[in-house]
């Protein structure tokens, strides 16, 4: 199958960890639809680790859903999710056990792929714990990719080896559609910005078909759930969602969508940010070189979108307020061209006029702005 755009959906891990069950998953599917998240593109409902029994079925060797957590089995969950117009995702591990200590798929790839296909799974995340040393990770992922293809079912293949062995070099080749490029996220601004900024140099490897996955979002955790901390703010959440969008990462929600507040919901449904994230061309952003002394601690990006549009992202990475600027001359748009950029503020949807030479704004600590830019002839 061809995955044209970064996948969007929800994953159970950041909030629930191992405390998952049928009720949580079905209520989440309900909430995604009730809150209109499906309408803007969030479609995969992914059950992460800790869904199965500690032992495989002694007769068939298959993975079996934990009957306490999922009393009606996985096909029931799949049917419920599909009936809502959503898609169903699950989790396994390339190693002997999952990171949570449940049976892994090592040595069982073809049987497990068939089990997931029988569950009518549309997306499979494959983790990397307990990988035997004698075999290359890339070989294990290739094997699972072929096992999934052999089922004949369209299943998005999500590689999760935390960026090991330069995964950006081979994830696409082995049949991956997205690949985790870093260690696990947690809800701390320096940590998640470190994840994103650390992948700047690898974004050129992302393209339609296979995307660099910066991990599930922590936006909206607001102090609750496995990956939460007490250090969160809306401005920082907006910065996280902005950089995930600008960098073309898959957008997998990690919060409890049943409890999302209105301000966060509006952010996660922001039309311009999602449009930039889902741009069908996917061209990696260009980072502007820091040419002025005051540009330390700030980052400015420019992305070429399809249809004669551009995206601009400005970030104040500092712990105090500061000016952030982008110099259009550095992009080749000098006054003699007769052109300037009309900037539409992604957060407000409003035009901020036509600018040439440069654009500069004052930013709160850790804040960001994203603009949709149209190149227009000046009057
Ligand atoms: C690893 C992954 C996480 C999550 C857990 C589950 O740490 O990177 O995203 O899937 O395993 O145990």
Keywords:
379 residues, alpha/beta, 8-stranded parallel β-sheet, 6-stranded antiparallel β-sheet, 9 helices, binds alpha-D-galactopyranose
Which strand-content bin applies to the residues? 15-25%
Kindly state the percentage of residues in helix.
10-25%
Summing up helix and strand content along with how strands pair, one would put the structural category as alpha/beta
Low-confidence stretches: none
Order of helices and strands: EHHEHEHEHEEHEHEHHEEEEEEEE
- Give the overall pLDDT as a whole number: 96
Q: What form results from the Cα inertia axes?
A: elongated
How many beta-strand segments? 16
Strand order of the largest sheet: 7-6-5-4-3-2-1-8
Major sheet, described briefly?
8 strands, parallel
Radius of gyration: 21 Å
Please report the distance between the alpha carbons of the first and last residues.
47 Å
- What small molecules does the structure contain? alpha-D-galactopyranose
* Oligomeric state of shown chains: single chain
Put the structure in a nutshell:
With 379 residues, the chain is α/β, with parallel strands linked by helices.
Description:
The chain is of the alpha/beta class. The protein is 23% helix and 22% strand. The protein contains 9 helices and 16 strands. It has helices at 13-16, 22-34, 73-83, 109-118, 137-150, 189-198, 234-246, 262-268, 271-277, and strands spanning 8-11, 44-46, 87-93, 123-127, 156-159, 178-180, 211-213, 251-253, 286-287, 298-304, 309-316, 322-327, 339-345, 351-355, 358-363, 368-377. It has an 8-stranded parallel beta sheet. Strands 9-10-11-16-13-14 form a 6-stranded antiparallel beta sheet. It has a two-stranded antiparallel sheet with strand order 12-15. α7 (234-246) packs parallel to α8 (262-268). The longest helix has 14 residues, at 137-150. The chain is elongated. The termini are far apart. The relative contact order is 0.12. The model has no long low-confidence stretch (mean pLDDT 96). The structure holds alpha-D-galactopyranose. Alpha-D-galactopyranose binds next to loops.
């Amino acid at each position: 199958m061809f995955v044209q755009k970064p996948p969007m959906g929800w994953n159970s891990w950041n909030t629930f960890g191992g405390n998952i069950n049928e009720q949580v998953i079905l209520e989440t599917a309900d909430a995604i639809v009730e809150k209109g998240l499906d309408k803007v593109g969030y479609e995969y409902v992914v059950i992460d680790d800790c869904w199965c029994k500690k032992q495989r079925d002694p007769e068939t060797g298959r993975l079996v859903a934990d009957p306490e957590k999922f009393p009606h089995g996985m096909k029931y969950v799949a049917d419920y999710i599909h009936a809502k117009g959503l898609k169903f995702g699950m989790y396994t591990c390339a190693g002997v056990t999952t990171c949570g200590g449940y049976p892994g798929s090592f040595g069982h790839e073809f049987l497990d792929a068939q089990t997931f296909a029988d569950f009518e799974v549309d997306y499979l995340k494959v983790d990397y714990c307990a990988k035997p040393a004698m075999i290359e990770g890339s070989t294990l992922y290739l094997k699972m990719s072929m096992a999934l293809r052999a089922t004949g079912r369209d299943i998005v293949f999500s590689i999760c080896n935390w960026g090991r062995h330069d995964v950006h070099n081979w994830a696409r080749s082995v049949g991956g559609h997205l690949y985790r490029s870093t260690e696990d996220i947690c809800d701390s601004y320096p940590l998640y910005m470190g994840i994103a900024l650390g992948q700047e140099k690898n974004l050129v490897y992302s393209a339609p078909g296979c995307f660099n996955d910066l991990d599930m979002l922590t936006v909206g955790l607001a102090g609750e759930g496995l990956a939460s901390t007490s250090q969160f703010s809306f401005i920082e959440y907006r910065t996280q969602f902005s950089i995930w969008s600008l960098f073309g990462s898959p957008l997998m929600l990690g919060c409890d969508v049943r409890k999302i507040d209105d301000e966060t919901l509006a952010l996660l449904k922001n039309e311009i940010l999602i449009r930039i994230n889902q741009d069908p061309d996917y061209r990696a952003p260009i980072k502007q070189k820091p040419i002025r002394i005051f540009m330390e601690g700030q980052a400015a990006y420019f992305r070429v979108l399809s249809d004669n549009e551009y995206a601009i992202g400005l970030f104040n990475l500092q712990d105090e307020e500061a000016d952030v600027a982008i110099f259009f001359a550095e992009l080749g748009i000098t006054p003699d061209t007769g052109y300037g950029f009309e900037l539409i503020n992604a957060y407000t949807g409003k035009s901020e006029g036509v600018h040439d030479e440069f654009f500069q704004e004052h930013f709160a600590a850790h804040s960001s702005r994203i603009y949709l830019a149209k190149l227009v002839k000046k009057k």
